[in-house]
Amino acid sequence: MILDSTFTTVSSEFLRDYDHLGWYDDDAMAARIVSGDGPFAWNSQHDKFSEVRKQSYVDFLHANSLCSGIMVPLAGRNGTVGMLGLISLRQSLFERELIAAVTIIANAAAARAELLGLVGHVSSDEAQALHTLSERQYEILRWIAEGKSNSSIAVIMGLNERAVRFHVSEILRKLGIATRNQAIGILQASEAAIRPRK
Fold first, then answer.
1. 110: which DSSP letter?
2. Residue 143, Cα to own-chain centre: how many angstroms?
3. Measuring CA to CA, which residue among 94, 109, 97 is closest to residue 181?
């Protein structure tokens, strides 16, 4: 866990106390993030834990006026997990629609960070996944990276647009991702990793 005020808006006193009290292993929210349960809402008055330390952590949040929130896990490279957390200073019970909206924002931000090169180099799994692409799929991915639309790629490669759409969905499936921007990020990171340094 990164306890750096650069990455959060909670107070430096909270971060210091979190570290001093050793909440790493008993942070009920972090445990849910790492477990892969998906996005969730929490509330310090309604969430109850049978384990004393986990309940003490929720009480610690409440004592620090961190009353409720929404957490969205974000799978990172090399097995790491990040998250976007929105925390409320009021007791709130969040609707499913709001959790879904926050999830969309979090994933868009993660994809944008990859596109801007703010994420580390391509993982070995992603590099291996690139090798599962057929020559045609790799060429389509290169055209996607050039900013070409499906219809433009169809014209360039002499295919129909339906075939291009099929190949794009196969590229995303093979790379284990959801967006074209993520695919571009993997391709660019892979090429940057093999590019000789001057």
1. H
2. 25
3. 109
